[in-house]
Amino acid sequence: MVTAMKYNTQEKCLALPEYGRNIQNMVNYCVSIPNREERTQCANTIIDIMGNMFPHLRDVNDFKHILWDHLAIMADFALDIDYPYEVIKKENLYIKPNRLPYNQVRIIYKHYGKFLENMIRKATEYESGEQKECLVGLLANHMKKSFLTWNKEVVDDSKIFKDLEHLSKGRIVLDEDSHKLIESRDILMKKNKNLTRRQNK
User: Fold this and answer.
1) How many helices and strands (H and E) does the chain possess?
2) pTM across the whole model
């Protein structure tokens, strides 16, 4: 007599699929053991097997505790043993985390980012002199790099200077005759080299 094959799609969904059907079957058998001492011994054996499945995670904090939590979940919290740790409660398993408060601060030019805006605002507070000139030059070059990172077209220095003036609310004004930024082709060439290097790894 030929026995019909039973597919996984016909089986009950696994609580934690990463452990597989065999481990789930072991857990189901463990729950059914009538003797508490034997049941506890079986549970410890299953934990050892589960730990051997992910040896690279043994250095993770509370690794053993996590395994016992997983065992309780796979047993649908019906495994009556003395757990070595306080395992997660069923009612706490599906509690949604608190909603993260996202920053709603408006970014004027998204390709420059908020940090650069803040740095430009800080630069306006510097007294005129060599230190401020150096800082402003670094910021302008960084703006050009950021622009070319998010935009494929080549950008004129005049565009960068105009954006810098806007972001500084008119307190930093540069001109192309006295300030030269990194050439667009040099930035794009370096960008393409880095992209090629990452693709070849």
Assistant:
1) 8, 0
2) 0.48
